[in-house]
Amino acid sequence: MRADGFESVILVGMGGSSQAPMALEEFHASEGNALDFIVLDSVSPASVRAALQRVNPETTLVLAS
User: Fold this and answer.
1) What confidence score (pLDDT) does residue 64 get?
2) What is the DSSP string of the chain?
3) Distance (Å, rounded) from C-alpha 31 to C-alpha 16?
4) Residue 61, Cβ neighbours under 10 Å: how many?
5) What value does the mean pLDDT of the chain take?
6) How far apart are alpha carbons 53 and 15 in whole angstroms?
7) Which helix (H) or strand (E) holds 51?
8) Which of 4, 12, 23, 27 is the most buried (most CB within 10 A)?
9) How far is CA 35 from the centre of its chain?
10) Rounded to whole angstroms, how far apart are CA atoms 16 and 38?
């Protein structure tokens, strides 16, 4: 994905669909060249806005689970 120009991933899920990705988010934080991986476990406007402010939308892959 990095070779295709992506710099970050936002995974949108709630409840069980985001539990495993939340664990992966902490694991990826320790890797130097990993994509910025954000798990959004809420669709509240404030949470969405905060996640989007952390990334460049043009280089972010958004996954819904």
Assistant:
1) 85
2) -GGGT--EEEEE--THHHHHHHHHHHHHTT-SSSPEEEEE----HHHHHHHHHTS-GGGEEEEE-
3) 25
4) 14
5) 80
6) 23
7) helix 45-53
8) 12
9) 9
10) 16
